[in-house]
Design brief:
This protein is mainly α and 117 residues long. The chain has one domain (3-103): Hypothetical protein, domain 2 (Endonuclease III, domain 1, Orthogonal Bundle). Helices cover 47% and strands 3% of the residues. It has 5 helices and 2 strands. The chain has a two-stranded parallel ribbon. Helix 4 crosses helix 5 (89-98). Zn(2+) binds at residues 105, 109.
C-alpha cells in the first residue's frame, strides 16, 4: 500500500480514520508476512505464549476476569519487538480471548469447558 491508499482510507467514513492506526494495520501486515517468510508461523508464535494449550480462567463472576495477564504482557512485548504497533497488553488479551487461547467464560456458563448448553 502506498501513501495515496492511506489518504483514501483516511477519508472512508466506513472505517476508523485514525491515520496512525491505518498505518499500523499496514505495518502489522508487513510484520506478519515477514515472520511467515522467516519461517516463524504466526499461529505457532502466538500459541507459544500459552504453551500451546488453551488457558481456562476459573472465574465465578465477570469481575474476576482479567483485562491482561503476564502472557498478554509478554505477547505484546514480543509483537512490538517484531515491529507491530497498537498491540498493548489489553488488546493482546482480547485477541487471545477471541482466538481461543484463553477461555474466560465464568464457571456457571454453558460455554465453560465441561458444561452443557
Amino acid at each position: 500500500m502506498q501513501e495515496e491508499d492511506v489518504e483514501r482510507l483516511v477519508q472512508d467514513a466506513g472505517i476508523i480514520r485514525h491515520r496512525g492506526k491505518i498505518q499500523a494495520i499496514i505495518g502489522n501486515a508487513r510484520a506478519y508476512l515477514q515472520m511467515e517468510q522467516n519461517g516463524e508461523p504466526f499461529a505457532d508464535f502466538v500459541w507459544s505464549f500459552v504453551n500451546h494449550q488453551p488457558q481456562v480462567t476459573q472465574a465465578t463472576t465477570l469481575s474476576e476476569i482479567p483485562t491482561s495477564t503476564p502472557a498478554s504482557d509478554a505477547l505484546s512485548k514480543a509483537l512490538k519487538k517484531r515491529g507491530f504497533k497498537f498491540v498493548g497488553t489489553t488488546i493482546c488479551y482480547s485477541f487471545m480471548q477471541a482466538c481461543g487461547l484463553v477461555n474466560d467464560h465464568v464457571v456457571g456458563c454453558c460455554c465453560y469447558p465441561g458444561n452443557k448448553p
